[in-house]
Amino acid sequence: MPLQIVRNDITTMEVDAIVNAAKRSLLGGGGVDGAIHRAAGPELLEECRTLGGCETGQAKLTKGYRLPAKYIIHTVGPVYQDGQQGEEKLLRSCYRNSLALAAKEGFETVAFPLISAGAYGYPRDQALQIAVGEISWFVLNHDMTVYLVVYDRQSFQLSKQLLDDVTEFIEERYVREEDASVSASRLARETREAPHPCYSIRHGVFPKKKKPSFVPPDSAPLAAPAPTSVGAVPNLDAMLKQLDESFSQSLLRQIDEKGMTDAQCYKRANVDRKLFSKIRSNPQYKPSKPTAVAFAVALELNWAETNDFLRKAGYAMSHSSKFDIIIEYFIQSGNYNIFEINETLFAFDQSLLGSH
Questions:
Q1: How far apart are CA 261 and CA 23, in angstroms?
Q2: Contact of 13 with 68, CB cutoff 8 Å
Q3: So what's the pLDDT on residue 325?
Q4: C-alpha radius of gyration, the chain, whole number
């Protein structure tokens, strides 16, 4: 996936570059900055001393030294005051300048923390929205895999409105499904435990059994009933020749019908070019469910079209799955922003769209 949200320690990421939320001096500090300096070793501090600091919103490059990452992009986020001091513009500049530097260096993989969302006090939900917005715009126009690294759940927050709306949508469907399941289970149990219909609860007695009718041993056996005709046996070869179009064939047809290019489609689906090439070259390719849903989102299919599209890949949507209900919420709402969908899926511990 071009944009992946992962829960990890950024100092352990094996990528071309990690981004450090640095202080203006670039000489280390607390939080992510301090953790990166400790993991990289004293050589990082020595190189940083030669850079002359960094202005807020700008970015500078150093080696990664003892880190798994080859390089470190240092950027200085704004300290949040009241949101009226240009903080948003500066925070967006952090992501834009860091990504521009990564592209200039030819990096293929970059990992970001959530800049300014810690000690600098930027509201986490707003910081997340800015991060995802800037990164998603970038990956739609560049071939690069970007990770947004979240250390723990406390550092990841959806907007309260979105979280409340999705939670309510899930509860209305998922809980109702569970209640229906419990009711069905109770009904089945009561049916098993109920007395025989011939038993009289009122009198507490069973009716007397009838004696079996006597059949003389020399009497002719009853004729067996003739088999019921069910029509001609179907021809398997003929049925196999009438297969519906495959997922791959349906995807490529709909890309053409919507006037999209391949690149537009797989980027909107948050799917990398190599995976799309496999789907294009193999008419019988079966994607994972998150990948199949990702393409339904990229094609902006309605809910009925999405269900039909997924059936071609062998999948069905169900109210017994939170993943499925979250997808239904966004499609029924007409929101096809795959990055916002993935933020929500991540918040609910579900698989992200575009994953293999």
A1: 43
A2: yes
A3: 95
A4: 30
Show the tokens assigned to 204.
Answer: 């507490």
To the query of whether residue 33 is one of the catalytic residues in this protein, the response is yes
Task: Please give the structure tokens belonging to residue 264.
Answer: 């537009």
212: confidence class by pLDDT, cuts 50, 70, 90? very low
Give the pLDDT score at 118. Answer: 85
Q: Which residue has the higher pLDDT, 162 or 71?
A: 71
The whole-number pLDDT of residue 211 equals 47
Q: What is the helix, strand, coil percentage profile of the chain, to 5?
A: 45, 10, 45
Q: Which of 9, 16, 33, 237 is catalytic?
A: 33
Q: Which residues contact 144 (CB under 8 A, 6 or more apart)?
A: 2, 99, 102, 103, 107, 108, 109, 110, 138
CA atoms of 81 and 354, how far apart (whole Å): 37
User: Average pLDDT of 90-103?
Assistant: 97
- Tokens, residue 240: 């196999």
Q: Kindly report the pTM of this predicted structure.
A: 0.74
Which token pair is 59?
Answer: 């970015």
Question: Are 99 and 92 spatial neighbours (Cβ–Cβ below 8 Å)?
Answer: no
Contacts (Cβ under 8 Å, ≥6 apart) of 292: 247, 309, 310, 313, 315
Instruction: Tell me the one-letter amino acid at 314.
Output: G
Mean pLDDT of the chain: 83
* Range in 47-56, 142-151, 307-316 with the lowest mean pLDDT: 142-151
Amino acid in position 45: L
- Judging by beta carbons within 10 Å of its beta carbon (0-12, 13-18, 19+), is residue 282 exposed, middle or buried? exposed
The answer to whether residues 345 and 351 touch, using CB atoms and an 8 Å cutoff, is yes
